[in-house]
Amino acid sequence: MEGAFSALHEASIYSWAVPCYDDDDDDDDDDDERVDEGEREEGEVEEEGEEEEVEEEEEGEEGEEGEEEEEVEEEEDIKEEEDIKEEENNNNNKQKQKKEKDENIEKKNNEEKIKKIDQAAAAAAAAAATAAAAAAAAAKTAAASGVPGSGAASIAATEYTPTAPQPPASAAAKTAAAAAAAAAAAAAAGTPSCRHTGPSPLHDNNTPHLGYRNINLIDRGGDESHVTDYAPTQSAVSSAAAAAAAAAAAAAANAAALEHLPSREGGLLKKRTEAEQQQQQQQHIEQQQQQQQQHIEQQQQHIQQQQQQQHIQQQQHHQHIQQQQHHQHIQQQQQQQHIQQQQQQHIHQQQQQHIHQQQQQHIQQQQQQQEEE
């Protein structure tokens, strides 16, 4: 009997069969449910407060991150402006140095050209003086030998000799001109028509010079006594006069080829003509304009490249911000899901605890009833 009773008792416990309930038990259960509902509402209120605090903290963090990003962008803009200004200053300094270098080169070239002009002028003056001296010597030799017209050549040679100091180019030109005139006079005085100094036994058509007929006689072995009638210095006079005339003409041409134009240094520019000088100046101006245009185009290209780089950087920064925002949004969703899961787990645990408590109470009640019976 006792074994059967214990078996029935165990079966009733594990099958959750409740034969009867008291009113007191119902009241206790209602009170427990009210307490559980109150605790559940309080837990929900606390969880809502915690969620609001988490959201406020996240919003504060987002605001701080936005301010930091704005400060970083402002610093980058300021740095880019400083880099642009520094590059412009460097370009200006390079242009200034290049301009100074070009001016120094041009000045050096002008000085070298002036030096060459001075040397050429001095050489022309020396050549002209030599030619004038040769012409004067030739004229004196002709006068000593009795050549008519030699006095005028000597006077011309002495009258055109420069005595007062003059600027190099003008002195050379005038000296060359005077030497050319003296040489021309000496050459005119030394022509064969004026070289006769005595009667000739053989003459053609009563002319005092060696005629074509007499030359033919000499070629055929005829009488050559008339050749001695000419002074031996007459050929030397003619040769000296011709050489002096040629040297004077060359010196005059060289001196005339040099143009004396006042320069900013106060010296002489070695420009042949004003047209060439103006042409060179125009070419120099065009080159400067081309260089300036190229520099402007390079600056514009550099500015465009910088603008493109800035635009690309802004796009990249915007994309990075969007990615960060998307990542933050995903993290927020994950956090919310995790919080919901925790809440559900907490509710499920509370429900299990409540069921377990009810089971314990029910077991205790059954044990009490059995003991009473």
Automatic annotation (TrEMBL):
Compositional bias annotation for Basic and acidic residues:
99-118
Instruction: Identify the stretch(es) annotated as Disordered.
Output: 19-153, 185-217, 271-373
Nucleus as a keyword of this entry, yes or no, is: no
Domain of life (superkingdom): Eukaryota
Q: Where is the composition biased (Low complexity)?
A: 120-153, 277-373
Q: InterPro entries, from UniProt? A: Antifreeze_1
Record protein name field: Na+/H+ antiporter, putative
